[in-house]
Design a protein that fits this description.
- Two copies of one chain form a homodimer.
- Chain A is of the alpha/beta class and about 160 residues long.
- Chain A is about 50% helix and about 20% strand.
- In chain A, α2 links the parallel β4 and β5.
- Chain A has one domain: 2-Layer Sandwich (Nucleotidyltransferase, domain 5), CATH 3.30.420.10.
- Chain A has five helices and five strands; from the N terminus they run βββαβαβααα.
- In chain A, strands 3-2-1-4-5 form a five-stranded mixed beta sheet.
- The interface between A and B is medium-sized, with 31 and 31 residues.
């Protein structure tokens, strides 16, 4: 079972896929600005621990962070990634990181694909699904699919 | 009991202080480059959970991260901070962040103090201590002292 994650502090997308043709469930973990940063990170950590246990997750696929225009935001997202990796470690789940470029190429075959093209290909792969209307959840599905495609290719070689 | 942390991926300083006149113990958590990032973050997470339990830590003081010249390094340290905050949350420990400026002023009364001046004031406060030879451990002591000074001042007001 693969857990895909689109890391974010206010909205953190997640998706559970047993294989590259099936979306079990996906959603969005949210934290509120009113709460302090450490608590928000702690809540995300706990919710990822809970997801790993509930869905018997074996592998976690996460979109990696590159140098961003907005450094302040990037430093917050990096802290979210640290908390999520700690949750994976605590749950005995192995983490795989994929760059935005790797995800675009894996899903669409095109490194400059935009969000709409990725969303269209995800729908083509998994069928129309009401759960995919949330952008963060859809990005989490794309990360999980990238991992499943990459692993499948590895197995075929 | 206060746990001070100087966050870092290869070397993460830590210090346990019951009050602003006593250093119980300090040290440095290390991870190796040979290991993958998620595992290294997981190891730091676990070691901080263990420290919190072993020393019955109630509060964690950590030096906060500001916009850095080397963004790549800053993004790694931010992930370390996320993993450590997850460990604190898991351990029921409240986290307090202090900026480098706050630490300098709390320890030396001077916002442009260098590392040597901070080290000298820490030694003056706690006495000569062989454990303070490690820079990361000394920075962790400074973070914990800043927290203890700040709390004491709050109590006096």
């Amino acid at each position: 079972m693969v857990l895909g994650i689109d890391p974010g502090l206010a909205s953190c997308g997640w998706a559970i896929l047993p294989d590259s043709k099936t979306l079990s469930v996906c959603g969005c973990l949210v934290t509120t600005r009113a709460d302090d940063l450490s608590n928000r990170l702690g809540q995300l950590y706990q919710q990822v621990v809970d997801l790993c246990q509930k869905y018997r997750v074996e592998e976690l696929a996460i979109e990696s962070l590159f140098f961003a225009k907005n450094t302040k935001t990037a430093l917050l997202v990096a802290q979210v990634m640290g908390a999520i990796k700690a949750a994976a470690y605590h749950s005995g789940v192995r983490v795989f990181e994929y760059t935005p470029l790797q995800i675009k190429i894996a899903i669409t075959g095109y490194g400059r694909a935009d969000k709409n093209q990725i969303a269209a290909m995800v729908k083509q792969e998994l069928g129309e699904n009401d759960q995919l209307v949330n952008n963060h959840a859809a990005d989490a599905v794309a990360a999980a699919l990238t991992h499943l495609f990459t692993m499948r290719k590895d197995q075929l070689v």
